[in-house]
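Re: the pair you flagged

First of the two:
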Amino acid sequence: MAMPMFRRVPRKLEEVLGDEGADEFVDFINDSFAANKEIVMELVFERFEKRLSEELNVFRAEYKAEIAELRIDMHKLIASQTKWMVGAIIALTGIFSIIVKL
């Protein structure tokens, strides 16, 4: 159980309220703070959850954009390598035919 926020009231207030009244007042204050604490925690959690969701959506969008860029770069790289391989094969075929004719 959580520790109460207030354990006693100031002496002057206790004199006005009496012992029983002061105890009831302290219980009332502690209950009120406990209830407000729960409400605040719920609000903070909801805001955190909303913010986390927003940040995740931004992250996903950035991630998708970067993946798309990587795919384009990979496609360009593969196309370039394919051109070099085809060129090398054609050049080697020509060179091989010259060597065979000798």
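Second of the two:
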Amino acid sequence: MPKIVKKKVPSSSKQKDKASKLSLRKSPSQKRAIERVQYILDIVADLLDEVGAEAINTNLIAQRAGIPIGSLYQYFPNKHAILKAVGQRHLERVNLMILNFLKEEPDKSDWENLIDTIIDAFAQLYQSEPGFIPLWSNKNLDPELVSIDRENNRAIADFLTDLFFGIIPWMKKKEEMNVMTRIMVEVSDSVLSRWLRESQDKELADGILQELKTMLKSYLNYYIQRGPK
């Protein structure tokens, strides 16, 4: 009997297959379809706050949305694809907040107050955005969420480089500033994740937020005072 040789699937093909399972089955183009997808994401965001990510399933989503399960599967192949879409929408709204912030051309001379304002804006958005806390507090359970969060942090660091470049008088290259803003974003992301998990203890949460602001200001002030090597 001839030996059966299993064909090895290239890793790139595996990645494409995985990505297809976590993406929209069809991108809505008509207004009604776009509105339906956003409605589904609104339902899921509310369910995240009510029952958490683990208790959500496609039957529950369809039931709460008042749509046939088949209609849900027209756009999303599974629960994880829907959670990914909710997460992407969260990050789009974070980026929109930052872009609007940059358009206002804030006063860089008062950069310490600028840091306070930015952290407060992030905190307010995180608390007011439905489903944000339960989804991103457990992002490490989903590799796809970790991946899009990492890419988004890079984009936020680029925004902050444009915002803060110039407050360190001796720094001449944006590449140097970008290394610093990457550190600032990663530290803030980690501390804000803890802040989200401690949100029920207001005194502790307020203290965490204040210490984050202090760390970021001390970090930048160190380089302002140090001068070029």
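Residues 87-226 form one domain.

-B.
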